Amino acid sequence: MAGDNEETALKEARRRERQVTLENADSDIGFCGWLLVGLSLLLVLFTLPLSIWMCIKIVKEYERAIIFRLGRILRGGAKGPGLFFIVPCTDSFINVDMRTITFDIPPQEVLTKDSVTVSVDGVVYYRVQNATLAVANITNADAATRLLAQTTLRNVLGTKNLAEILSDREEIAHSMQSSLDDATDDWGIKVERVEIKDVKLPLQLQRAMAAEAEASREARAKVIAAEGEMNASRALKEASLVIAESPSALQLRYLQTLNTIAAEKNSTIIFPLPLEMMQGFIKH
């Protein structure tokens, strides 16, 4: 936990350093720049109160404005939310949406570590964490993040075999999030969440896996049946030993069998008689 906090603090410090480097002081615009700014301010004063509407700008709660003065970012970073002022003719601004953005990763054909081709798609949640870096360091942060997510998905899944892809989706998503977050840190983007949506297997592989699963179930069923027969045979052996020790138990079992047969309402019943009952007749 302490290591993660130190790493986060180090990233934040580097991000601040890059932002300070980008934000130049107003004096960097030079003499000509200050001359143009002064002329713009005079023009605003001469055209009051109409010009005030060109100076006042408003950004919403979920937006930030990056102001450029003669092409340079103003010190202070992003402005907003709320009201801010610009100098006409010399200042321009770009609005940056700070809300969380969601996009789907198109299905990617990936060759796994065990040489199986699968189609995998996912979803990524990210937001702009530093508006200044998102404007100054990347042309199109959204498009760059989408392309990077596709390549990262292929790279991460290429190091996994099929069983790991099917069972360890959460670990794969966490690995993708870490890789994307590190890569987009210079762009002022924070990747908040990555999810693997679906893993599509080739039809032949699905049939092979289904056949393998069926064979495994049949094998388990045969093992269970064999174990049941073994337990039954042990129980019969123990019962025979008990009956052998007590002849009366055999007679009781015989009578119970007759009772069971009589309850079935058969028209013809054939049953053997114990030899002990026939000895009297045999002597005569």
Judging from the principal axes of the Cα atoms, what is the shape?
Answer: rod-shaped
Q: Biggest sheet: strands side by side, in what order?
A: 3-2-5
Rounded to an integer, what's the Rg over CA atoms?
A: 41 Å
Number of DSSP-assigned strands: 8
CATH superfamily of the largest domain: Band 7 domain
What share of the residues does DSSP label as strand, in percent?
15-25%
- Mean pLDDT over the residues: 78
What is the oligomer described by this structure?
A: single chain
The first-level CATH class name of the largest domain:
Alpha Beta
Roughly what percent helix? 40-55%
CATH fold name of the largest domain: Tetrahydropterin Synthase, Chain A
Please state the structural category. Answer: alpha+beta
Describe this entry's structure for a reader.
It is a single chain. The chain has 284 residues and is α+β, with helices and mostly antiparallel strands. The protein folds into three domains: 17-97, no CATH class; 101-201, Band 7 domain (Tetrahydropterin Synthase, Chain A), CATH 3.30.479.30; 216-283, no CATH class. Helix content is 55%, strand content 21%. A three-stranded antiparallel beta sheet has the order 3-2-5. A three-stranded antiparallel beta sheet has the order 6-7-8. A two-stranded antiparallel ribbon has the order 1-4. Strand 2 (63-69) and strand 3 form a beta hairpin. The model has no long low-confidence stretch (mean pLDDT 78).
Please give a handful of descriptors for the protein shown.
284 residues, alpha+beta, 3 domains, three-stranded antiparallel sheet, 55% helix, rod-shaped
